[in-house]
Amino acid sequence: MRVSSRTRGLLCVFACAMAQAATPAASIRVSPSTADVRVGETKAFSAASTGVTTVSWQVLSTANAPAGSLGSVSGSGVYTPPAALPVPNTVYVRASDSKNAATFGQATVTLLNPAPSIHSLAPAAVNTGLPYLVTITGTNFLPTSQVQWNGAAVVSQFVSPTQIKLAGTTALAANTKVLVTVMNPDPGSKTSNSQTLTVEPPVQVTLAPDKRTVRCGLTLQLTAHVVNNADQTVSWTASAGAVDSKGLYTAPAVLPTSADVTIAAVSKADPSAKATVTASLQNPMPVIGSVTPAGLLVGPNELTIAGAGFARGAKIMIAGQSVPATWISDQKLTASATVAAQLGRIASVKVMNPDPGTLTSAALSVSVKVATEKMAYADAIRFLEMASWGPSPASVAHLQSIGRDAWLAEQFAAPGSPLPNPTDQNEGNGALQQAFLTNALTANDQLRQRVAFALSEIFVVSGVKDDRYWEMVPYLRLLSDNAFGSYRNLLEKITLNPGMGLFLDMVNNDKANPAKNTVANENYGREVMQLFTIGINPLNPDGTLAPGAPAYDQQTVTELAKAFTGWTYPPEPGFQSQWRNPPYFFGEMIPIAEHHDTTQKNLNFAGQCSAIPAGGTAASDLKTALDCLARHPNVAPFISYRLIQRLVMSSPSPQYVGRVAAVFTANAGSLQKVVTAILTDTEALATGSGKLREPIVYSTSLLRALNAGILNNAASGVAGHTEAMGQKLLFPASVFNYFSPFYRIPGMSPPPVAPEFQIMNAATALARVNFVYRAINNQISGNVKVDFSSLEDLAADTDILVEAINQALYRGEMNAAEKTAVKTAAQAAPDPHNRVRNALYVAASAAQYQVEN
Amino acid sequence: MKFNSLRSRRDFLRFGVSTISTLGAAAAFGEAGLLSASTQAAAPDYKALVCIFLFGGNDANNLLIPNESSADTRYGYSTYKNVRQNLALSQASLAAIHDPVSNKAFGMHPSLQPLADLYTKSSRVGLVANVGPLIKPVPLDSTGKHPNLNAVPLPVNLFSHSDQTGEWQNGVPQGGSSTGWAGRLADRIYVPGCSPASSPGGYAGFPPSIGISGNSLQLIGHCTQPTTVSTSNFGLIGMDHTAIADARMTGLQNMLSLKSGVTLIQAAQNSMTSAIEVAKIIDQASSQTPITGFPNTDLGNQLAQVANIIRMQGALGTNRQIFFCSQGGYDTHSDELKQQGQLLADLAQAMAAFDTALGALNLLPNVTTFTESEFNRTFQPNGNAGTDHAWGTHTMVMGGAVKGGQIFGKYPQLVLTGPDDSGDRGNWVPSTSVDQYGGAMAKWFGVQAQADLDYVFPNLVNFGYNSTLPIFG
What we know:
The complex is a heterodimer.
Chain A: H1 2-20, E1 27-31, E2 34-38, E3 43-44, E4 46-50, E5 55-61, E6 72-73, E7 78-80, E8 90-97, E9 104-112, E10 117-122, E11 125-127, E12 131-139, E13 146-149, E14 152-154, E15 156-160, E16 163-169, E17 177-184, E18 190-191, E19 195-200, E20 204-208, E21 213-215, E22 219-221, E23 223-227, E24 234-238, E25 242-243, E26 248-250, E27 260-267, E28 274-282, E29 287-292, E30 295-297, E31 299-308, E32 315-318, E33 321-329, E34 332-339, E35 346-353, E36 359-360, E37 364-369, H2 377-387, H3 393-402, H4 404-413, H5 430-442, H6 446-456, H7 469-481, H8 487-496, H9 498-503, H10 523-533, H11 554-563, E38 567-568, E39 590-591, E40 601-602, E41 611-612, H12 618-631, H13 635-647, H14 654-666, H15 671-680, H16 682-685, E42 691-692, H17 695-705, E43 709-710, H18 718-724, H19 762-776, E44 784-785, H20 789-794, H21 798-809, H22 816-827, H23 832-845, H24 847-850, E45 851-852
Helix pairs in contact in A: 2-3, 3-4, 5-17, 6-7, 6-13, 8-12, 10-11, 13-14, 13-15, 14-15, 17-19, 19-23, 21-22, 21-23, 22-23
Chain B: H1 4-8, H2 28-36, E1 47-54, E2 64-66, H3 77-84, E3 95-99, E4 104-108, H4 113-122, E5 125-132, H5 161-170, H6 181-190, E6 209-211, E7 227-228, H7 243-257, H8 263-285, H9 298-311, H10 313-316, E8 320-327, H11 336-360, E9 367-372, E10 393-399, E11 407-409, E12 432-433, H12 434-445, H13 450-456
Parallel strand pairs in B: 1-8, 1-9, 5-11, 5-12, 6-7, 6-8
Antiparallel strand pairs in B: 2-4, 3-4, 5-10, 9-10
């Protein structure tokens, strides 16, 4: 078509020129006479004329073309084609005589399409199978331009001479390289340079990080990465919670029904391309704002906890004990909680959210006190130092709740804790030590045990001789059973106890035998006077020394020894008795008449008993002798003084001793009445004059104060520590006990009476401190366990910690300097574990705690 | 083994020098120890007294036995045998010795053979006959057949364990003394002129008196105070020199420094403060391997510890030391032969080991070891194959300075109700007082002026200052 049109134009130009050349006078010839000129290029023509002065140039067409649509010719013959091809595309560049237009020459110019050029493809890649829109930027594009991929035409849309758009979906395989060209058509068909278009694999989206858990109320930053496409934009969605345009996911405040949340990122380049993460939501971090009421009571409580982040199923932890809570909202819980008395009268309160993502809140400290205090806290502590193996949180609360008189009545009625039988006759006392301490640390008959222990330090039987369990246990049971009975009855029972018989040689004590030149054994006769009844010196009713001769003389010892002759071990069940029965320790010793000295025994008891008449039996002489002793006026102050020392203070005033001795006398030596008088005396509760905790009591007191648990009903490991501290349980060095009632501390002026200090020295002082270290670090044994987790919860605030220890060990009366010392030691430890232990170490090892007063 | 104690304590007790100052005045004796801790050389003119107290009342009638074949009431074995009956040791079993003073044969308990050897072969063991608490010598009555117990004041509460233990230790059998004679001896050595009017506990050096078996009255002075060292684990555990442990120690010491106004708290603070200082000093001074060779018994361990401390005396800065050890179980009211035999065997072996250890240290002439016991036992047995409380007893003295191989003092006549019997069972009235016994030690230790001896043994004047036993020649 175009070729034929061009041919026709050429014919026309030629015919016209021939027609006007009829006048030869002047002529103009344009050269070249024919030319192809491409749009965008120029062509210079020259005119050779004859007889013409000046020529003027013009461009003409056979068509009636609008002005300018044919291009232009400069005055010097340079032709510039129009931007668009005219129709027909043949024009004539004419040079004519400016004076006579009929004289001209012209060139026939065939105009050609411009040459296209591609500058860039945007994008330069498409995805296989994915609709695309590629913009080709370049020059000389024509509406008729044809885009070709690897030479094959593709559909395109002409936008402008500099832009063509391609839209479509390619099926080319991934990673194919396509050469893109633009071809302008005839006339002058021309193909551009090529640009490479890459066919990428399908679009993919990936998500990072690969974290799968998000806590409610917290955020998770996600990053999407679009693969195989330059367009990195994605759109975000989440099935719960929210994601912003930058991928920051915010979990909902409360756990939704489903804990699994799907978070998706969709490629904007390819909406079919997306990535998802399934995140597991976790319960929020609970935070306690307040506990109402602010102070809890020992026993049942109705409490409300306000705060934030409480999850359904949250539990309340009070001092580490889980309490079921009622979930009201994520900001409120309620509970009915029975709260035990606490170490330091303080408890940590925490909220523990359940799984998923169980978390426990920071602790809040709450005081735990007795609802109705019938006895002040400090008074209750002091009282239990005297009347028990040391105050424990529970025992203090109980005493405060019921008051002193009710407590005493309860204790007097409480049956004694059992001590197990020996496994065999050869078993040593180690197991008995352990059973003894287990009772001390855990059993309820505290006063009975403590009084029995006091009695055991007056009426001593020691494992240094009675070194087997079965030799000792009946004696301990005896003391427990008779701790609240009458003194006279107790005296007879201990006298007839085979363990005592062995220890002080009354068993098998024979009357004098002239043939063997032996006489009665003086041991029991002497010690029963010196240590169990009247003592060496005459006493006033208030225990002070009375003037006059000693309470007895050596002759009385010798004579009294005769009264205690004729006793042997009880027979083993099923066996006949004989003189010198084989050792057997259950039951009372039995008399053998022919070995009892029936002569008159002359006693010199300062007018009380002058003699035991001749002719008595072993039993009658024994009762007479004990009656003589028990009636002695020394007995009441003698026993009272020692019991006060064992229970209350080292150096009681004569008035105190006198008051107690008067009760002793008025009540026929009722130990229950005597103990009551001792513990309720005004001097007992006065501060400043107590005693050094003897090692056994120091050990039990500390462990009880620290609420130590005894596992397997076996307080193992404790006895070894009391031994290192100078007090081997059940093994006082002699019948004179671990220490003397008269011991005075040397080097002080005046030297104070303080029996327990007789076993306080450099070695035992260090052992005491070391006991504290072992105890607070759970190094006593596997069965003695302290738990300071509640204190550790609160240890971040050392003031709270110190106050708790003040309450637990110093009955709330620690002074400022002491608090500072404890606090400073605590603060040096960064972690709660060591912080609590440093504080306890300093407080419990200090002399201020070792001495109860 | 007990000696691990001193060595292993290094792991137990460590604290910086800076903490010492917080101890205040009590730290003063630490300075002396620290200053001299760099030298392990023996202190010049070093002497030590080591007391071994036999608690319960050793039956000395079976410690030193007459061994003449005659029927002499004092020296004849048959006299002994006739009264002792089934408690008599067989003559053949005795560890035979000869007393050059009386020129008589004696026997020691067979369990004491190692000490009898030292008596006979090296003269490093001597025996003391019939010594006990007295205020004044007890004369015979007009018949000359019995002691006149009413002629002079007697020790209070004779035959009582607690009282006679106290009287042996305090040297004041009238009663009422809260100090011991060894403590007063240290007073006069370390604080010349120390008197009851002096400030109690005024001496600030390292304690010259050391108890190895708990507190004892004997070591308590007025100006000097003893310390007590255990045979194992003497130190504080957990002091591992971390900041946390240091803070714990500082806290402990801060509490020790606080005044409470309560006497007993002050007393406990004193004990603890001293304990920490003593432990630290001994820890620093004890750098050598523990001495071995002792029986692994309580007494063996005690004497081993004494040997260890004696070895470090140069570092402690004390040239006079007094030690107190003890052995219990002698209250043999029944089954005596077996019980006492075991106890004396332990005693003899431990003492012999101690002698060997001192020989190895080249300190035999510097250390004198002696026994005490609150009383002898009745010469007449009771019906339980045992004996009861009596009075004058026999003791042993051991050391390179001791003029051993002889019996000091006068052996009693073994006659019930006889001239030496205070009663009717053979309760011997001592022929030598504790003052004369201990006074010999005091003089050897360097306290010889009458005024000083009066302070240490107030009753010595009643016996004569020159009447002390010639134990050291």
